[in-house]
Design brief:
The chain is of the alpha+beta class. The protein contains eight helices and nine strands. Strand 1 and strand 2 form a beta hairpin. The C terminus is likely disordered. InterPro entries: RAVE2/Rogdi (IPR028241).
């Protein structure tokens, strides 16, 4: 004789599990609305640190173990508004009667601004993140799991992109120096010819790269006293003292600089940690991890099939 249970125990337990899961999902959606408030406060703090507030951040930009570069710049918001740097480079003779070459940002109202594109992008991405939070809190159904999941996924991607901009790990983020270097009329007096002045952000630090350039089309006429006379493919210096090591990592590269092919004679890098940008990086990293945790929790409660297309 067969024994039947009604309703079937398996179906009943499945329904109870689904009900419990739905309750957990509803609880999570309610709690996320409260969490979005603190998240917005964190993003607003980032926006305030990136805002143009006087007196700004004055940062020392000097080489550590040499007199090659000595000076400072002042950043206000996304722009460098002041700068005074002294250069002593072997490939850049100073003006007659001066011990070094001085680079000073022009204070003329007609001079173009020295803008840091990475910080412009970070500021815009933070503002976009604030808009996403507002949409999540005030638009649509806050208990619609699919809607909230898509908003949080977008928020996570936007915050991550902002953090990567501050990280500045690639040339695509920092900008190619031969295309985005400061123009000569940003300085008073103007920059010396064939000198590249490039500012970028890397690991929340302001990085200055100076390059002295030489046209790739110049052909020097050998003299009896030239040190680079070569009849066999090796210069006289190399034959006497051995092959010289590469002066920098761009020694053999050719670049297009203002329509002219050039190579880099000398390259100097200095950097200065920016406390405000370090604070922004720390906050963005924490916010990214928090949003990622929310996305993961929603993915579990909604089921992988429901969120596969969004992840």
């Amino acid at each position: 004789m067969a024994t039947w249970a009604y309703p079937p125990l398996r179906d009943q337990s499945t329904r109870e599990a689904d009900i419990a899961l739905a309750r957990e999902l509803e609880w999570l959606l309610h709690s996320l609305q409260e969490s979005l408030v603190s998240l917005k406060e964190g993003l607003q703090e980032c926006a305030a640190l990136l805002a143009p507030q006087e007196p700004g951040s004055t940062l020392v930009l000097s080489s550590l173990r040499s007199e090659n570069v000595k000076g400072f710049v002042t950043r206000v918001g996304t722009q460098v508004v002041k700068g005074d740097i002294q250069l002593r480079l072997s490939s850049l003779p100073p003006p007659r009667g001066a011990p070094s070459t001085r680079l000073s940002l022009s204070q003329s109202p007609d001079a173009p601004s020295l803008v840091l594109p990475q910080l412009v992008s970070v500021r815009n991405l933070v503002n976009q993140s604030l808009d996403i939070v507002d949409v999540s809190a005030w638009t649509g159904d806050p208990l619609n799991a699919t809607f909230i999941f898509s908003q949080l996924h977008l928020l996570h991607e936007t915050i991550r992109e902002a953090r990567q901009m501050l990280k500045g790990e690639s040339d695509d983020v920092r900008g190619n120096w031969w295309e985005t270097s400061a123009t000569e009329n940003m300085f008073d007096p103007p920059l010396p010819p064939h000198l590249s002045f490039h500012l970028s952000i890397a690991d929340s630090a302001l990085v200055l790269l100076l390059r002295t350039l030489e046209s790739n089309n110049q052909t020097a006429t050998p003299t009896a006293f030239a040190t680079d006379i070569s009849l066999t493919g090796f210069s006289l210096r190399d034959r006497l003292f051995g092959t010289r090591t590469r002066a920098h990592d761009e020694t053999n590269d050719v670049f297009k600089w203002y329509g002219e092919e050039v190579h880099v004679k000398e390259k100097v890098r200095v950097e200065s940690q920016d406390p405000s940008l370090m604070a922004v990086m720390a906050k963005l990293t924490a916010l990214e991890h928090e949003v990622m945790r929310w996305v993961a929790a929603l993915r579990v409660l909604m089921g992988s099939d429901d969120t596969e297309s969004e992840s």
